[in-house]
Design a protein that fits this description.
Number of helices: 11
Distance between the termini: 48 Å
Number of strands: 11
Largest sheet: 8 strands, mixed
Helix content: 40-55%
Strand order of the largest sheet: 3-2-1-4-9-6-10-8
Order of helices and strands: EHEHEHEEHEEEEHHEEHHHHH
Radius of gyration: 22 Å
C-alpha cells in the first residue's frame, strides 16, 4: 500500500492465447499518464506465442507475470490476480482490449475527491483488424463531471473491466469470480454493488473493447446454459443482502436473458434451456421478483409458463420470425449502403 496522495493501482490482465493482441493491450497500460501502477499479468498456459510476446514487455519493472501450472480459465486467472494485488485500488483489463492513456488518472482523481468505493466508466467497441488511426479513443480535450450513482449501478453492463475498485472492499467482501462457468462477470458485478455504498460514474468511453468472432457474448451454444446457474447465484446474493430494492432490476435482466437464450441457443440445447427457464420463472415468482412489463418480458414469461410442447412450438415460430426480420433488415441495409457509397457488397 502507498500514501493516499498517490495510491498504488493494481491492473489485472489475464492472458490466454492472445499473441496477436497482447502488445497493443500492454502498451496502452504502460502508457498511462498515472504512473504508480502494478501490472499483474496472469498467464493461463497459452498454447500460442503469448509467452514470447509477454517477454518483450518485462523490461518495465511494473509488470509482474504469474504463471498458472495448468489452464484454469478466465475466472481463475482473475482470482489469482486479486490474491496477488497489493494496490490500494484494482481494476481489470482483458488482454485483447485497449485502454485510453488517461483512464487510471481519471479514476484515481474521482476516487480521491469523492471517496468512491467503485468508479465505473464507459466503453467503445471496435472491430478486429481496424487501423490504429481508426480506434474510437475519446476526444483529446476531456471536460466531464463524475456522477454519483445509486441503484442505477445494477443496470449498468456487468463487465468486470468497467470497474475501478477500492481493494479493501474486495478483501472485506471476499469478492471473486465463479470458476468453471461462463458469464462470470454477473455475480462479481452484483456482489460488488451490494457491498458498496459510494459509487461514481465517469461519462467517458475510456475502455476500447475489441469485437472478435470468438467472443462469448455472441455464443449460441451450450455456454448459454451457464446463465441459468449464474442467475441463481445472483439471486442468492440479493437474498443474502436482503436487497429488495434491486429485485426489479435483476428480474428485468433475467427476463431479457431468457429472451436471448431461448431465441438464440442452438436447437440441440433448446429443450434443456426451456426446462431451466421454467425453473427460473418459478423461483422469480416465489421470491417476489417483479420485472418491467415490456412486450418482450410479457411474451417470454407467458411462453415459459405454457406446457413444454406448446412452448417449444411457439419458440420455433418466434425464432423463425426473428431470423426473417434480421434478414430483411440486413437486405435493406445492404441496399442503402450500396446506393450511398457504391460498394459491391456489404462487409459483414
Amino acid at each position: 500500500m502507498t500514501s493516499l496522495a498517490e495510491p498504488l493501482v493494481s491492473i489485472i490482465v489475464p492472458v490466454y492465447n492472445v499473441a496477436l493482441y497482447i502488445d497493443a493491450c500492454l502498451e496502452s497500460i504502460k502508457q498511462q499518464t498515472y504512473k504508480n501502477i502494478e501490472i499483474i499479468v496472469v498467464e493461463d498456459c497459452s498454447t500460442d506465442n503469448s509467452k514470447q510476446a509477454l517477454a518483450l514487455h518485462l523490461t518495465d519493472k511494473r509488470i509482474r507475470v504469474i504463471q498458472h501450472n495448468e489452464n484454469s480459465g478466465l475466472s481463475a486467472a482473475r482470482n489469482t490476480g486479486i490474491k496477488s494485488a497489493i494496490g490500494d485500488y484494482m481494476m481489470f483489463v482483458d488482454s485483447d482490449d485497449i485502454v485510453d492513456a488517461r483512464l487510471v488518472a481519471a479514476c484515481v482523481d474521482c476516487a480521491l475527491t469523492t471517496n468512491a468505493e467503485v468508479v465505473t466508466y464507459g466503453f467503445a467497441p471496435f472491430k478486429e483488424g481496424v487501423a490504429d488511426t481508426e480506434l474510437p479513443y475519446p476526444a483529446a480535450s476531456l471536460a466531464f463531471e463524475a456522477t454519483k450513482i445509486d441503484d442505477s449501478y445494477f443496470s449498468l453492463p456487468h463487465f468486470a473491466w468497467l470497474k475501478f475498485i477500492k481493494s479493501s472492499v474486495v478483501q472485506a467482501a471476499a469478492l471473486n469470480f465463479p470458476v468453471g462457468l461462463y458469464y462470470e462477470d454477473w455475480p462479481f458485478h452484483w456482489h460488488l454493488g451490494l457491498s458498496t455504498k459510494v459509487r461514481y460514474q465517469l461519462p467517458i468511453n475510456f475502455y476500447l473493447y475489441r469485437q472478435r468472432g470468438t467472443s462469448i457474448t455472441g455464443s449460441t451454444d451450450k455456454k448459454l446454459l451457464d446463465l441459468f446457474i449464474i442467475h441463481s447465484e445472483v439471486m442468492s446474493l440479493v437474498e443474502d443482502y436482503q436487497a429488495d430494492d434491486v429485485k426489479k432490476i435483476l428480474a428485468n435482466k433475467i427476463r431479457q436473458s431468457h429472451w436471448s437464450i431461448l431465441t438464440r441457443i442452438d436447437n440441440e440445447y433448446l429443450v434443456r434451456a426451456l426446462v431451466q427457464a421454467k425453473k427460473a420463472d418459478k423461483a422469480l415468482r416465489l421470491n417476489g421478483y417483479q420485472n418491467k412489463r415490456t412486450l418482450r418480458n410479457i411474451v417470454i414469461s407467458n411462453i415459459v409458463r405454457m406446457p413444454s410442447q406448446i412452448a417449444l412450438l411457439i419458440i420455433q415460430v418466434l425464432r423463425q420470425a426473428l431470423e426473417k426480420e434480421t434478414s430483411l433488415k440486413g437486405s435493406k441495409l445492404e441496399i442503402v449502403t450500396r446506393s450511398k457509397v457504391g460498394f459491391m457488397f456489404l462487409k459483414r
